[in-house]
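ok so for the tutorial part 2 we go from a plain amino acid sequence to predicted structure tokens. step 1 is just haveing the sequence, like this:
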Amino acid sequence: MTRSSGRARHVSVAASTAAATRADVRALAIAAHGLDRCRDLDDVAHAATELGVEILQAGTVALCRIEQETCRVLRAYPEPTEPREVWVMRTAFRADDRPALRALIRDRASWVAHAVDTSGEPTAPDDADAGDPAEVATLRELDSASGLAVPVIVNGAVWGLLYATRSLGADLFRVDDVARAEVLAALVAGAVARVDLEAQVRHLVADDPLTGLANRRVADASAETALESGHETCVVMCDVDGLKRVNDELGHDAGDDLLRSVADVLRRAAEALPGTTAARIGGDEFCLVTVGRRRAEVASVVAETISAFPLAHGAAISYGIASTAVTGPVSARHLFRQADSAQYRAKRARARAAKAAIAVEADPTVTAERVVVSGSAAIAAAQSGVVPRLCAFAAAVTETLGGAEWAVLMRRAEGEAASAIARGGSPAELGRATRTTVVEHDTWVVEIGAAEAAATDAPVRTALDALVAVAVVGAT
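step 2 — the prediction. this is what the tokens look like for a chain of 476 residues:
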């Protein structure tokens, strides 16, 4: 061979090596950009495995998590289809059973293993160049020729590993392949550290520390986004009935447990309505924000979930729903306000129903005492004037008797029919049979709602007559 031909061959080899190096650099740069766009660990696993197949010219690449010296596969690409491949990928491996894994964890040592030699023949059991026998056996189970693993080191500790295999007939992994894999693993480690930090920051900024649900800020943003989408948006405002009693009688630890139970109920409801945000607004107030779900579906899911998972200590969830299908285009604040009003009405209805149940068991004397206490307090707290005092009295006593609606009427002249001055209550909320008790004083007529079984005998009638007289006479 002449000197010139030898020099030409050297130049050719050098050029080929430089071209291969440039290709590796470009591939790793692309990998860095791809991993930088990842926003969670699932994104990182997808990017790492798919990019790894290209960079390492591998048949399969898997990203594995190592915890307490146990290795499990987070994702493999391409996804295995053969039963034995699926079984291997789903199996967790202990370092005690895998010497190469133990060395990777303790010494951060990458490794290669080969099920065949360079001629394609199966490696012998005593072949030192074949690598760890346990890893060789795994390659044979996968019908693979060669494998490598490199550690993924996050914040100074072995977080996991990248595992790659090549099929029978392909080149065996060599030192250069391990170097490429280690660079890729370093890029993956950076992405894992970043998304983990971002998740922690999101948790601190967006999550309620007690329940783990989103906070008010996230709920507001979710509602704004849902409204901008143009799809039907619902807000479900929830309130915990009985939290104060639990705190007073059992302590705040029990109250915190109750709030976490409420969060679990709402989390289940949100899971049944994909795209829904469950949030704790503050105190004992929670909400759900749904998008693209009809109000009837939301109401059905919430009712069924609350019914299926009752709260401890006799506590309960009152809720109200507001939907853009009813309100039309509104602001997020208005939608929350409408849902809160509906929740408040539901809470009051529950209280009336509970008092009605008490009224059924109480004798007329006890019921009369309750009427006097609630009615006199309402009159004393009302604004001056006959109508405000009568309205306050009627609303308070109707609630005490478990009724649903009330009215204040007035006769303009003797013998004329009374005309309504004010009405209140919502019969649709109570959902039970009610009746009306009429009390008159001079030109004033007050219609008071009562549960069908509530006591309205002579002692109660006497108390009602006296209170109406106090409301009218005291206002003049």
